[in-house]
Amino acid sequence: MDVITTHVNADFDCLGSMVAAKKIYPEALLVFSGSQEKGVRDFFVKFPAVAAEFTRLKDLDLNAVTRLILVDCQHSSRIARFAEIVRRRGLEIHIYDHHPKAAGDLDPSGGSIRSCGSSTTLLVTLLQQRKTAVTPQEATVMMLGIYEDTGNLTFPSTTTEDYVAAAWLLERGANLNEVADSISRELTVEQVSLLNDLLKSMKTTTLKGVDVSIAHASLDHYVGDIAGLAHMMRDMENLNALFIVVGMGDRIYLVARSRIPEVRVGEILEELGGGGHATAASATVKGLTLIQTLELLESVLRSRVNPRRTAQDIMSAPVKSIPLKTTIEEARELLVRYNVTAMPVVDVEGKVKGIISRKTVEKAMYHNLGVVSVADYMHTEFMIADPETPITEIQTYIVGNDARLVPVVAQGELIGVITRTDLLRYGYGGEALYDLARDSLPVKSREIVGLMNKHLPPRVVTILRNLGEVGDRLELPVYAVGGFVRDLLLGVVNKDIDVTVEGDGIIFADAFAAQYGCRVKSHQKFGTAVIVFPDGSKIDVASTRLEYYVSPGALPTVERSSLKMDLYRRDFTVNTLAIRLNSAYFGRLIDFFGANRDLQDGVIRVLHNLSFVEDPTRVFRAIRFEQRLAFRIAKHTENLIKNAVKMEFLDKLGGRRLLSELVHILKEKEPLKGIYRMANLGLFRFIRPDLEFTPAVQNVLEGVREILSWFDLLFLERPYERWAVYFLAMCDPLTDEQFWGTCTRLSVAEHYKEKLYEMRKDGALLVTAMEKRIYSNGKLENSEIYFFLRSLTVEVLLYLMARSQHAEVKRAISLYFTKLSGVRPLINGEDLQRLGVQKGPRYRELLDAALSARLNGTVSSKEDELRLVQGLLAAL
Q1: Greatest CA span in the chain, whole angstroms?
Q2: 387: Cβ–Cβ under 8 A, 6 or more apart, which residues?
Q3: φ, ψ for residue 365 (rounded to 5)?
Q4: Strand-pair partners of 539
Q5: Helix, strand, or coil here: 107?
Q6: Which CATH number fits domain 445-675: 3.40.50.620, 3.30.460.10, 3.90.1300.10, 3.40.50.1220?
Q7: Cα–Cα separations (whole angstroms), residue 756 to 135, 703, 739, 795, 796
Q8: Of all helices (H) and strands (E), which one includes residue 30?
Q9: 604 phi and psi, to 5 degrees?
């Protein structure tokens, strides 16, 4: 007995192949090995005559099968109970499959296995050659198989043979309307819910230069046609390679789709017990959890995704090298400065003569060989790669020889190096390919342009494209970097655009300005420039550079470097993102240090353990970003902050730098959170050793927040320095002399220091006088309030209002702001002159008398004020 079957969860290619095979083996029974996809089941409901041609597996005597015809499948693990008979002596096995043959497949005695878009195509070609007649309904079923597996003849795996087979079927009456209706079926409510879960969990990671997307979900019941969801997701998100992993009951179902040759999904899912061809595959896993299956898939992907890439794709450039005559001690200083484990040694012509490692240098120093030349101990037997050397060769050398570095040389010139770290990032990809804890949609590089169009004004997007085009003309890579990119991914508008150029940033800025009618302010020392547009808006431009610190807390020394090193010098991972602006790569997201992951996790993390040692101001910036973004400082980063505090590294900060960071925190929208975090980490003592965060200080700060909220609602047009009010509140317990010393320590500008000092001092005295006046008279006249307070700045008044415990004093200051501060007498000096008053101090006394009367409501017109003055003059 002949039986035609296919793999479990059969799709339309399985159905079309089986119907076509029946024309070649007319006496064979059509038997499904297991379930069918929903689309096939729906088709059977619509066309029961086609379903009637099939025999149920439970009605089949497996012992009677003498020839097994497999279509669209070659592996026994995918045919359920038929696997029980495939090793039986005397059984013929014919296989018709368009998937490539792989290890573990069945060994057929007949059939046809070769690559094309669908298995149905293979069989239809045989029918063409044999001039076999087919009915319009049979042609329609076969056309369904071809259309589904070739994506309506659009998949990259589609061949000329698929088109010819489809044309032949069309000539024989295949109904394309029915094909379209069957393939373009509406989603059920359950499928829509599953699709939503998959889209939310989907993460795209660049693995060895290839974007691989993984989505996962878990259900307690079965939902059919997840292959259709995979097609839909791939097209919706324009994905190169997609793997969806869905747990349903006690099984894990995997479906994969790929548009690129670097990811052959059939070979990948074979290792999970499934199969398919290069562009489409599936697998069913038993006995593993969803997490275990994802981990297994990740492991397979890391070994299987292996596009041919060369040295120039991953090398670090430009290169820091060591001159041949350098001493061991000098070499150690350079290795530490640039934070590398090995460097090439070059002669005066720049030719690579050896490799010196930190390990060798440290041992030489241990043996008191610091004054000896590196030439005596450098490695002289080493691999030199050219830009086209395959990475696999370099990897084999580094791993096999325990090497730390391979120079890349082109036409005798050292153009780059490949280190172990470069290989690790290339091979591992830098982060997990999936994330079970992820709640929000990850941002993929291809979506950056969409984010730009959504969050940025069209003019800004045009400028970014123009920057890339100028880079194209100058053959310079151009990137938007830093906070602008961070905020773009967070959906926050940030108009401060920082641009970095891998080359001469000043030349780039000059070229852009010349083309678009801008001005340029350049700083040759740092290789930076500011492009000033006609409307006054600005863009900062810098050459990619690295920084190193001679001592803790010192200002950095700057040198030209690569983009990777430029980003590595930044403070926190979330600020290390870059977006390529050149036309061919516009919108490509560059993420060397897992910044996107930290953005989605809401984490502030330093790039290396000495970050706060080299620049202690980063302690304050960590707090500022943590509070502004509502993130959290990573545990290890917080431990490093505590260590920097314990080691007193912040004492080495100059007052101006410390004040700058403090002012930034106090200018934040919610500065109290930052202040409290500073107190929690013990930072107050670096402002002043005896400055403490006490409950009393906290009360004053809370009072400031309330008062400023009130003031901002009423007096939006009155400018003032918010940070100064909070600063005064922080320093509330200090004596006048201590406050002066604190301002001196922080290098507050001399004129502002004197102003704050005098007004803080006078304000305290005036408030005391006001309180005494209230106690003696029960209240204050409006004129008294005015003359008590008119000499004080807005900042000091708001501080005094917040710190006062006396309700009447608060009311008086409030009244001064709301009604009294803008009152002026209606008479002036000319009026007094007409009354015969001689110029001098008497002018002010009379005008103040008129003002007092107006404030207290005893005069209401200019005539009233003149009569008041005349009475005062007459009384003299």
Answers
A1: 138
A2: 310, 311, 312, 315, 408, 410, 415
A3: -65, -40
A4: 497, 531
A5: coil
A6: 3.30.460.10
A7: 97, 19, 9, 9, 8
A8: strand 29-31
A9: -100, 120
CA distance linking residue 576 with residue 481, whole number of Å: 7
Write the DSSP symbol of residue 316: B
Count the neighbouring beta carbons within 10 Å of the beta carbon of residue 163: 15
In contact, 17 and 123? CB cutoff 8 Å: yes
Q: State which residues of the chain have pLDDT below 50.
A: 428-430, 436-444, 547-558
Question: 827 CB contacts (<8 Å, ≥6 apart)?
Answer: 847, 850, 862, 865, 866, 869
Q: Count CB-CB contacts under 10 A for residue 719.
A: 7
- The pLDDT tens digits of the residues spanning 509-526 come to 999 999 999 999 988 877
Provide the terminal-to-terminal Cα distance of the chain, rounded to the nearest Å: 136
The pair of structure tokens assigned to 861 is: 């017109």
Homologous superfamily (CATH) for 2-183: inorganic pyrophosphatase (n-terminal core) (3.90.1640.10)
Bridge partner list, 730:
none
The pLDDT score that the predictor gives to residue 222 is 78
| Structural Rg of the chain based on CA atoms | 39
d(CA 421, CA 190): 45
The letter for the amino acid at 542 is A
Enumerate residues 6+ apart whose C-beta is below 8 A from 353: 324, 345, 346, 347, 375, 378, 380
In the chain, list all ranges with CATH 1.10.3090.10. 688-820
Q: What is the pLDDT of residues 816-871, one digit of tens each?
A: 999 998 899 999 888 888 888 888 888 888 999 999 999 999 998 999 989 998 88
State the Cα–Cα distance between residues 277 and 256, nearest whole angstrom: 10
Cβ atoms of residues 576 and 567 within 8 Å:
yes
CA distance linking residue 126 with residue 96, whole number of Å: 11
Nearest by Cα to 406 from 487, 334, 314: 314
| CA angle (94 as vertex; 88, 100 as ends), nearest 5 | 110
Q: Encoding tokens for residue 208?
A: 């060895």
CATH top-level class for 312-428? alpha beta
Helices then strands, each counted (H, E), the chain: 38, 28
Q: How far apart are CA 735 and CA 745, in angstroms?
A: 15
Which one is the CATH code of 688-820: 1.10.1040.10, 3.90.1150.10, 1.20.1250.20, 1.10.3090.10?
1.10.3090.10
Residue linked to tokens 């120079």: 407
Q: Supply φ then ψ for residue 810, to 5 degrees.
A: -60, -45
Question: At which residue do the structure tokens 């096999």 appear?
Answer: 400
For 250-281, write each residue's pLDDT tens digit: 789 999 998 887 888 888 998 898 887 778 88
Burial class of 64 by CB neighbour count within 10 A (0 to 12, 13 to 18, 19+): exposed
Q: How far apart are CA 765 and CA 761, in angstroms?
A: 7
- pLDDT at position 741: 93
Phi, then psi, of 595 in degrees rounded to 5 = -65, -40
Q: What is the pLDDT of residues 186-201, one digit of tens each?
A: 677 888 888 888 888 8
* DSSP-assigned letters across all residues of 227-291: HHHHHHHHHHHT-SEEEEEEEETTEEEEEEEESSTT--HHHHHHTTT-EE-SSEEEEEEES--HH
Which of 143, 125, 102 is CA-nearest to residue 276? Answer: 102
Beta-carbon contacts of residue 103 (< 8 Å; ≥ 6 apart): 270
